[in-house]
Design a protein that fits this description.
The structure is a single chain. By secondary structure, the protein is an alpha+beta fold. It has 2 domains: about 150 residues, Thiol Ester Dehydrase, Chain A, CATH 3.10.129; about 100 residues, Hotdog Thioesterase (Thiol Ester Dehydrase, Chain A), CATH 3.10.129.10. It has 5 helices and 10 strands. α4 runs antiparallel to α5. The longest helix has 25 residues.
Length: about 270
């Protein structure tokens, strides 16, 4: 049976998994989308803030999306998601972890602009086998109401659309590539390279328009804020607004991202 808006009462919705994470798939994702040393190199990772090889946060998000799909999204009259309200990466994903995903319906309300649909904000928490929470996420989905269940199988996008997580991962890929380019230029000038730390999460992720097959997306990044970490004073916390625009000049993607960046030591 196809799940409709009426099938999502507030409260605990379900638990999914376990899902084993292999070292090979973790490295393959990092090599393609997030080739930072802490995700690819055992020795470099051991010297990082994460103290060992860890999966990209975007890889963990993609796994969570697949677990949601296999668990219930695949049989839901879902019309997609406009974005992610908030996401926190709380602990590193390690090779061999067995993940479970707990899902809670935060609320369910009929859409004012599209009364044939409802908006269902979901709270997801991914845990490893020890019960440690690796990631928490709040994301709304748009679901057809029962009377329009058949229409719910039709897409609002008007064509084959990329996963929002693919769009976000492509942004990460280009950010890392640009960082590597700047680092190489700095090395050529004889400068010392600062190694960035991990990201604790992000807010206000918005998939504003569908990215269709054949679209060309230009990404941009602008510093939003910079402050010293209270718990780790040797580090700063940078927030940046990352955006993506298609070939027609339409904004399709936006996220307020956060990362740890090392502070310049005295005398350097």
């Amino acid at each position: 049976m196809t799940l409709a808006f009426e099938d999502f009462p507030p409260g605990h919705f379900g638990s999914y998994g376990p899902r084993r994470v292999t070292r090979e798939e973790m490295l393959a994702f990092a090599a393609e989308f997030d080739p930072q040393p802490m995700h690819l190199d055992e020795e470099a990772a051991s010297r990082s803030m994460l103290k060992g090889l860890s999966g990209s946060g975007w890889f963990l998000c993609s796994i969570m999306m697949r677990m949601l799909f296999d668990g219930f999204i695949g049989r839901t009259a879902s019309l997609g998601s406009p974005g992610v309200s908030e996401l926190r990466w709380l602990a590193p994903l390690r090779p061999g972890d067995d993940l479970t995903l707990d899902v809670e319906v935060a609320e369910a309300r009929v859409s004012r602009s599209r009364p044939d649909t409802g908006i269902v904000p979901l709270k997801g928490a991914a845990r490893n086998a020890t019960g440690a929470v690796l990631c928490e996420m709040v994301t709304p989905i748009i679901v057809r109401r029962r009377a329009d269940e058949e229409e719910g199988r039709k897409s609002l996008f008007g064509g084959l659309a990329a996963s929002g997580w693919h769009v976000a991962s492509a942004c990460m890929k280009l950010l890392v590539a640009d960082g590597q380019r700047l680092a190489q230029e700095a090395v050529a000038r004889g400068e010392t390279i600062a190694i960035w730390g991990p990201s604790p999460g992000f807010r206000e992720l918005r998939w504003l328009r569908p990215v269709l097959a054949g679209d060309t997306i230009n990404y941009a990044s602008e510093v939003y804020s910079l402050r010293t970490s209270e718990k780790r004073p040797e580090w700063g916390i940078l927030q940046a607004r990352n955006t993506g625009t298609n070939q027609r000049g339409e904004l399709v993607f936006s996220v307020l991202a956060t990362a740890f960046v090392p502070r310049r030591t005295t005398g350097s």
